[in-house]
Amino acid sequence: MGAFRGTRKEIMDVKGLSENIRNLTDTLVPSRGCLEGRQSFLEKLKGILENEMPGFKAELFGSTVNGLGMASSDVDVA
Q1: Other CB atoms within 10 Å distance of the CB of residue 58
Q2: Strand, helix or coil for residue 69
Q3: Which residue, 42, 45, 54, 70, has fewest beta-carbon neighbours within 10 Å?
Q4: Which pLDDT value is given to residue 52?
Q5: Which residues contact 47 (CB under 8 A, 6 or more apart)?
Q6: How far apart are CA 32 and CA 46, in angstroms?
Q7: What is the mean pLDDT of each successive set of 10 residues along the chain, which is 78 residues long?
Q8: Cα–Cα distance, 36 to 30 (Å, whole number)
């Protein structure tokens, strides 16, 4: 694909749209700290469950595991 060629307004609109997409992505994608917090939550939950019900297993599933989760997504545990 070649470079986008359009009017000055169209080029500015594309640049503005690109910036909006980057900003939206920054707010939706979980940070490293968020992902680490989810993992920490799972480890604490596993410890509590193992204490209360030996042999019980807890595993993450859903968007947290498949990488499609957002910063505001819940944590699915089975």
Answers
A1: 14
A2: coil
A3: 54
A4: 92
A5: none
A6: 21
A7: 69 81 84 88 91 88 87 88
A8: 10
Q: Residue 71: how many CB atoms within 10 A of its CB?
A: 12
Nearest alpha-carbon partner for 74 in 38, 43, 39, 44: 38
Note the pTM of the prediction, 2 decimals: 0.61
CA-closest candidate to residue 32, choices 71, 61, 58, 62: 71
| Residue at token pair 């992902």 | 35
Cβ density class 15-49: b for 16+ within 10 Å, e for less: eeeeeeeeeeeeeeebeeebeeebeeebeeeeeee
Distance, in Å, from the CA atom of 15 to the CA atom of 52, rounded to the nearest integer, reads: 55
The pair of structure tokens assigned to 23 is 């900003």
